[in-house]
Amino acid sequence: MDFALTDEQRMLDETLTRLVADKVSFEQRRHMLNASKAGADDPLWQSFAELGLLHMPFDESVGGLNGDGTDLMIILQALGRGLVPQPYLFGLVLPGQLLALTASAEQRTRWLDPLLSGEHQLALAWQEVAARYDAKGITTTARREDDHWRLTGQKTLVMNLESAAAILVTAKLDSGKLGLFVVPTDSIGVSGFNYRTMDEQSAGDLTLEDVVLGVEHCLSEDVESALDEVLALGRAGLCAQALGAMESACDQTLEYLKDRKQFGVPLATFQALQHRMVDMHLHLEQSRSMTILAATSLTLDSTDRDYKIAAAKAYCGESARFIAEQAIQLHGAMGMTDECNVASVARHLVMFDHYLGDCDFHLETVSDRIDAA
Amino acid sequence: MNLTFTTEEQRFRAEVREFLADSLPDDIRKRVRLGRHLRADDHLRWQNILSRQGWLAANWPVEHGGPGWGPVQRHIFDEECAAAHAPTVVPFGVNMVAPVIMKFGTAEQQARYLPRILDNQDWWCQGYSEPGAGSDLASLNTRAVREDDHYIVNGQKTWTTLGQHANMLFCLVRTDPAAKKQAGISFLLIDMQTPGITVRPIVTLDGAHEVNEVFLDNVRVPVENRVGEEGQGWTCAKFLLTHERTGIAGLGHAKQALVHLKSLASRIQHRGKPLLEQPSFRQRVVKAEIELMALEVTNLRVIAAARDGGAPGAESSLLKVRGSELRQELSELTRRALGPAAVAFFPEFLYQDEPLDEAYAASAAASAQYFNRRKLSIYGGANEIQKGIVAKTILGM
C-alpha cells in the first residue's frame, strides 16, 4: 500500500503543472478555443511531444514509455485543473491504446508511430445514438467483399473528429462479432458534422455510406475485450481529468468566499457557507480516493477492473455535478456569467458524466456485481 | 501508487483471523452478532484473552507493554475483529486515558496505572461532557478547589459511557475560574469509590442503558492524581480527542454491516424474489457499497500517511463525518429490509439475559441499532463540529 509518487512522477506533475499555468491561463484558453482548427500542429501539442507526454502512456513494445495508471492520472489531473482543451485522452490515449492492442506491425507504422511523434491525431467512434452508452448494441456494419470491406452506419459524439487524420470505427460483422477499422477521414463515403460540446470540446457525428476499405484497414475482427480495456482506461482517465477540474472549482470557490464581502464581512465567515464548502471538500477527497482506486485497478482481471472503475466513474460523476452546482451557487450571480472562470469548470464537471457512460450506466455495472463482491 | 497489502501484512491478517477463530468464545461472538448488549463480564473475559495474547493495547508502544504495531497492523486488526463479531475493546482506559498518561503523566502515574489497564484491573470511564458543556466542552463548570494536598470536586458529568461498571474516572475540572476558559481546566484521575460520587443511569431512545450521569459532591481527590500541570487539562483533552477520532470511521463495522445487509436482503423475499433484486432497494445498497469503497481508500490514505510519520489531523474529521453517515445509512437499510419483522421490540432479550425464540432473535436488534447509531454523528465531536474543524484547519476559513 503506497500513495506516494516516485521522484519521476513528482517531476512530471511539477513540469506539467508549470506548463499549464504558463500556457493555459483562462485567457489563453479562450484564445485557443477561438482558433479555427488546432490538431497536431498546435504549439501546445508539440510541447507535449517534446516533453514525451505523447509516448508516456504506451507500452515499450510499441515505442512508448511504459507509463502506468498513476502516470496517466498525474497527466490528466494536471490537464483537468487547467481545463486544457487539447484532446490528450480522446485524440491520443484511447485510439492509441486500441491500436497498440490490435494493430499489426505495418498498421502500427502507418497509424500509431505518427500519433506518438505528434504528426497526427486520431479519434475513436464507438458510440451510436440508439445504443446510448452500450458499446456492443450498435448497428453500423462491416461486410467483407473479396479483397475489401464495406462499412455503413452512423456514429455519434466522436470526440476530436475535426482534427483527426483517421477514425477508429467499431462495426458489427457477419460473424456477430465486433470489428474495428481505421477509416481515413478523406475516404469516399465518409462525412462528418462537427460541433462544440456544452463544455467547449470539439466533437462530431460521423456518417459512413458504403465506405470501401482495403483489408489493411481492418484492425480486428473481434475487438470486444480490447475495447473494454480501452474504455476502462478512458473512464479512469476521465475521473483524473474531472478530479483536476474539481480541485480547480473548489480552489476558486474558496478564494471567492474569502475575498467577497457582504454585510461588511467576508462570505467565508458565514457558517452556512463554510459547511457547504466543507461538503465540496469532502466530495473532492472521496473522489480523489476513487480516482486512485480506478488508476490502480487497470491491471486487474477484467471483471474486477470493470467493477471498480465503474464504481469510480459513478462516484466521480455525482461528486463532479455536486461540486459544480455548489460552485455556481456560492459564486452567486457571478457564477451564472460566461466570463466567470468557474462557469467553464462547472460546465465540464456536469458534462463529464456524459462521456464514456454516466452515473446510471455505471451504477448498473456495479449493481450486476454486488452479489459476488 | 498501489493499494495492495504486503505479503507480511497479509500473513499478519491470517494470524489475527486464526486467533479470533480459535479464541473468541462462541457465546460472546453470538451476542455481538445478534446485537445483544454485552455484560461487564463478557467484556472482561474477552479483554483478558486479548491481554494474555499481548494484543489488548494495540496502540501502545512496546516499552509500555504494547505489541508495537504500526497503523497498518492496527487497521488490519480492527477490521478482522469486526468481521469476526469480536467485542470492541472498551476504549476509555487502554485507548484514551493511557495515551494521556504516557504523554503527560509522571513516572509514578505511569507505573501505577498503565499495568492495571494492561491486565484489566481498572475499568475507566470518561468525565468530559456536562449538562451545560457539550460541543462547547471548554465551558465546563465542574469545580475543583485546592485544599492542602487535595482537590475538592463539585459538579456533574454526563454521557459517561459504561460508567456503571467503572472504578476509575478521568475528569476535566475547572481549577481556575478567573482564567480564560481553556486555561482554567485541569485533568484529574478519580477513584469512583471516593465518597460523594453518584452514578445515575440514562436510558437512551433505543431502550439501552449505555450512558450515565455522574454527580460529584465534595469529592476529595489527591493532588497527585492530577495529570500534567494545573491549567494544562485542555491540552490533555485535545490530545485525547485526536486519539478518539482515529479509527472513528468505523470501517470494519461498516464492512460487517454491509455484508450482513446483503445476506439479509438476498434471503428476505419480496413478491417472490429476493429483496436485493427490488430496484430501488438495490440502488441504495449499491450506493452504500460504492461509498464504502471510497471511504476505505480514504482511510488507507490516512493510515499510509500515519505510517510514514504524519500525525492524524483534520482528515480524521472527514473520515468521521462520512463514516458515521454511511453506518447510519446501513442501519437504516437493515431496518427497512426486515420490514414488519423490525417492529417488535424485545428489550429483555437485547439488554438482559432473557432468552428469545430463534425466529425473533435474528431480527430483534435492527430497529434498536438504528436508533443507537444516531449517536455516531453526535459523539466524539458532532459532525457539525467536525465540519467546523475542516473549515478552519484545512480550508482556512
Protein topology:
The complex is a heterodimer of chains A (373) and B (397).
Chain A: H1 7-23, H2 26-34, H3 43-50, H4 69-81, H5 88-102, H6 105-116, E1 121-125, E2 141-145, E3 148-159, E4 164-172, E5 178-184, E6 190-196, E7 202-214, E8 218-220, H7 224-259, E9 261-262, E10 265-266, H8 271-295, H9 302-330, H10 341-351, H11 359-367
Parallel strand pairs in A: 1-4
Antiparallel strand pairs in A: 2-3, 3-7, 4-5, 5-8, 6-7, 9-10
Chain B: H1 7-23, H2 26-33, H3 40-53, H4 71-83, H5 91-104, H6 107-118, E1 124-127, E2 143-147, E3 150-157, E4 168-174, E5 185-191, E6 197-203, E7 209-222, E8 226-227, H7 233-245, H8 251-267, E9 269-270, E10 273-274, H9 279-307, H10 315-338, H11 347-351, H12 358-361, H13 366-372, H14 383-394
Parallel strand pairs in B: 1-4
Antiparallel strand pairs in B: 2-3, 3-7, 4-5, 5-8, 6-7, 9-10
Helix pairs in contact in B: 1-4, 4-8, 5-6, 5-7, 8-9, 8-10, 9-10, 10-13, 10-14
Task: Note down, in words, how this protein is organized.
- The complex is a heterodimer of chains A (373) and B (397).
- Chain A is an alpha+beta fold.
- Chain A has three domains: 7-119, Acyl-CoA dehydrogenase/oxidase, N-terminal domain (Butyryl-Coa Dehydrogenase, subunit A, domain 1, Orthogonal Bundle), CATH 1.10.540; 122-222, Butyryl-CoA Dehydrogenase, subunit A, domain 2 (Beta Barrel), CATH 2.40.110.10; 225-367, Butyryl-CoA Dehydrogenase, subunit A, domain 3 (Up-down Bundle).
- Helices cover 49% and strands 17% of the residues of chain A.
- Chain A contains eleven helices and ten strands.
- A four-stranded mixed sheet of chain A has the order 1-4-5-8, with helices on one face. In chain A, strands 2-3-7-6 form a four-stranded antiparallel sheet, with no helix packed on it.
- In chain A, a hairpin with a 5-residue loop joins strand 4 (164-172) and strand 5 (178-184).
- The model of chain A has no long low-confidence stretch (mean pLDDT 96).
- Chain B is built from 14 helices and ten strands.
- Chain B has a four-stranded mixed sheet. Chain B has a four-stranded antiparallel sheet with strand order 2-3-7-6, with no helix packed on it. Chain B has a two-stranded antiparallel sheet with strand order 9-10.
- Chain B is globular, with a radius of gyration of 22 Å.
- Chain B has three domains: 7-89, no CATH class; 123-232, Butyryl-CoA Dehydrogenase, subunit A, domain 2; 246-394, Butyryl-CoA Dehydrogenase, subunit A, domain 3 (Up-down Bundle).
- With 397 residues, chain B is an alpha+beta fold.
- Chains A and B meet through helix 7, helix 8, helix 9 and helix 11 of A and helix 9, helix 10 and helix 14 of B.
